[in-house]
């Protein structure tokens, strides 16, 4: 049979029939590196419009995973597309080299700083460990075909980088915006440190849920604020027995730090007459939760003697349930009727919402708990106890004081440490804050005039129509101007960042 193959004018190619990418890709990378392809792109791009991709750095700890790969490949596509579109689009990779995960891994090898090694040796070990992780991840990213200046990445542990941070912080200090305070954070007593939101996992946990009386100290102050149910106040119309505001909490151990009781200004509250374990009493709680609450107490025979709005209760003085001190009733929009009594135990040192409302009322940010989760030596009644094991003792003290209304076990979702898988606490710790309001007197030009980071902000105009510099506008206003000047894709990103900036008191 005649073979006509040699008579056909077919296209010829050097491409192999099989991809064999596992072998060919390294050869392609080697060729690109040998010809300095990235450097040639930078040379060709000189003079063109710049496109800069701000790359949030990966963390220098462990091998890369699929999330790293997707992130880097998508960004690489954008940079290469912009290059092909005629832009000068350099890409400088970087790594975050600071943080607890690095320290924990180093501790496994050399021990804790100040215990088995000195702080200087420990820091150097952390630096060496981070550099090793950077080197490994860099090779993996290069293997993905990502173009970049891999020989000159930015590292947060570079001395120049750290020095620039110090210089910037110095400008903030000179401007008078840095101040020290306390703020509650997620705290792992096993780690002995604060946790970021990303380091918190939620697991089911059985907690002790209790209802607690806060005795009203001046009953006469209540009746001038309430609306009676029938007739005029007087005699039995007010009911009988002591009056208390009742709170519900799943963290009894936070009661030693209580500074107030919060109610919602727009909710309706009832003064309820019922029979308690010690005789007749009157309890103040949200009307919307009245039936559920009294059912929880197993009290069927009760009646409402008065109503009032939450706003009417503001300023009432209550007795602490086991300490000889008084606490105020305050107003808080975070109070809901989803559970509890509608009256919220408020400890600014142990909760974010408590902290925010406490700042409004200038409440102390009291934290009687040490970094190991143990009550400090000067904590009356509970000194030396581990907080998550102190709940039974707190309940015992409340019962002895006659201020425990109800106790029950509750299964609910609770934050846990992602490393130790153990329950965490909210605990106020000393923090440094950058105030969002105020002026920048330290940012001055040669003539003593205030200057913004990049000059004067024309959108912030004074009486004479002149732009207001950052030293006059404050950080918040300056940031809001920059947000408006930035093009956002998608649009909702602008609203999201504005919402984060416009109401926060500090950073």
Short descriptors:
single chain, 507 residues, alpha+beta, Rossmann fold, Isoleucyl-tRNA Synthetase, domain 2, 3 domains, seven-stranded mixed beta sheet, four-stranded mixed beta sheet, 31% helix, 23% strand
What does this molecule look like?
The chain is of the alpha+beta class and 507 residues long. The chain has three domains: 35-152, 3-Layer(aba) Sandwich (Rossmann fold), CATH 3.40.50; 158-177 and 435-445 and 469-506, no CATH class; 194-420, Isoleucyl-tRNA Synthetase, domain 2, CATH 3.90.740. Helix content is 31%, strand content 23%. A seven-stranded mixed beta sheet has the order 6-11-9-10-7-5-15, with helices on both faces. A four-stranded mixed beta sheet has the order 12-13-8-14. A three-stranded antiparallel beta sheet has the order 4-3-16, with no helix packed on it. A hairpin with a 5-residue loop joins strand 17 (457-461) and strand 18. Helix 4 packs across helix 5 (119-143) and helix 13 (475-485) packs antiparallel against helix 14. It is elongated and about 115 Å long. Residues 231-236 and 439-472 have low confidence and may be disordered.
